[in-house]
């Protein structure tokens, strides 16, 4: 039984090293030692269930606790940096390495090796595939971006400008999320009209054309627009 225990632990260790090396070479937060320890630890927990003779139900229960515990480790490597999420792939790799360790602890060496191969292929081959996809023109991407169009005009012409904005959006065609008006600070007799739109980045030239047309109105003193970071369109 001791030899079988050592064999399972060595298999988990080897698989953890294989997965961890790839992460370490990319200098991720969870590298060689962390992933190897996760795989080996998962193996030890499951092997405990085997040694105590709790049967399949006991091993399955221990594996479930291992998954929950690894979830806390995964949360530790996920960070938010300037509005973007970093470390999700490394957290997923930790989760998969724990699964490989569980398989080794249960004595399923073939599935464990297959799982290790899948993780390595995902982090290497699919990494390049995802880069190729991300390098495609933005017009082919399923994205939406929020734009804010701001127009400053005479108070007396507020209704005219609001109507002109609505008509321009209808003829482009574009659709806005909101259209508001407010007084300009320290400038009596001036109104700021703000239109919020959500559209595909490829339609940005339409917004530019609309802003150019509105800027030609006599009552308009300034026209500007800003764009927020693009986000995937909801399913």
From TrEMBL:
The residues covered by the MgtC/SapB/SrpB/YhiD N-terminal domain are 9-131
Membrane-crossing segments per the record: 34-53, 59-79
Gene3D superfamilies linked: 3.30.70.260
Q: This protein's superkingdom?
A: Bacteria
Q: Where is this region: Disordered?
A: 204-235
Q: Does the keyword Lipoprotein apply?
A: no
Membrane topology recorded in Swiss-Prot or TrEMBL: Multi-pass membrane protein
Q: Recite the UniProt keywords alphabetically.
A: Cell inner membrane, Cell membrane, Membrane, Transmembrane, Transmembrane helix
Cellular location(s): Cell inner membrane; Cell membrane
Q: What GO cellular component entries does it have?
A: plasma membrane
Tell me the ranges covered by the MgtC-like C-terminal domain, including all copies. 147-225
Give the residues annotated as coiled coil.
none
Keyword Transmembrane included in the entry's annotation: yes
Give the signal peptide range: none
What is this protein's function?
Virulence factor required for growth in low Mg(2+) medium and for intramacrophage survival. May be involved in regulating membrane potential by activating Na(+)/K(+)-ATPase.
The record's similarity note reads: Belongs to the MgtC/SapB family.
Q: What is this protein called?
A: Protein MgtC
The gene from which this protein is expressed is mgtC
């Amino acid at each position: 039984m001791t030899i079988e225990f050592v064999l399972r632990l060595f298999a988990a260790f080897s698989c953890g090293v294989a997965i961890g090396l790839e992460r370490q070479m990319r200098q991720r937060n969870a590298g060689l030692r962390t992933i190897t320890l996760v795989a080996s630890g998962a193996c030890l927990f499951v092997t405990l269930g085997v040694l105590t003779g709790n049967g399949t139900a006991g091993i399955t229960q221990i594996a479930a606790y291992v998954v929950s515990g690894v979830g806390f480790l995964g949360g530790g490597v996920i960070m938010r940096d300037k509005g973007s999420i970093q470390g999700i792939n490394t957290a997923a790799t930790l989760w998969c390495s724990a699964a490989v360790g569980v398989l080794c602890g249960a004595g399923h060496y073939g599935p464990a090796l297959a799982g290790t191969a899948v993780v390595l292929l995902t982090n290497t081959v699919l990494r390049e595939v995802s880069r190729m996809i991300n390098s495609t023109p933005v017009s082919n991407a399923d994205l939406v971006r929020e734009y804010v169009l701001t127009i400053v005009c005479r108070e007396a012409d507020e209704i005219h400008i609001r109507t002109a904005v609505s008509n321009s959006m209808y003829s482009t065609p574009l659709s806005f999320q909101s259209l508001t008006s407010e007084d300009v600070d320290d400038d009596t007799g001036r109104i700021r009209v703000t239109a919020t739109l959500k559209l595909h980045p490829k339609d940005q030239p339409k917004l530019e054309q609309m802003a150019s047309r509105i800027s030609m109105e006599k009552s308009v003193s300034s026209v500007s627009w800003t764009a927020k970071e693009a986000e995937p369109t909801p399913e």
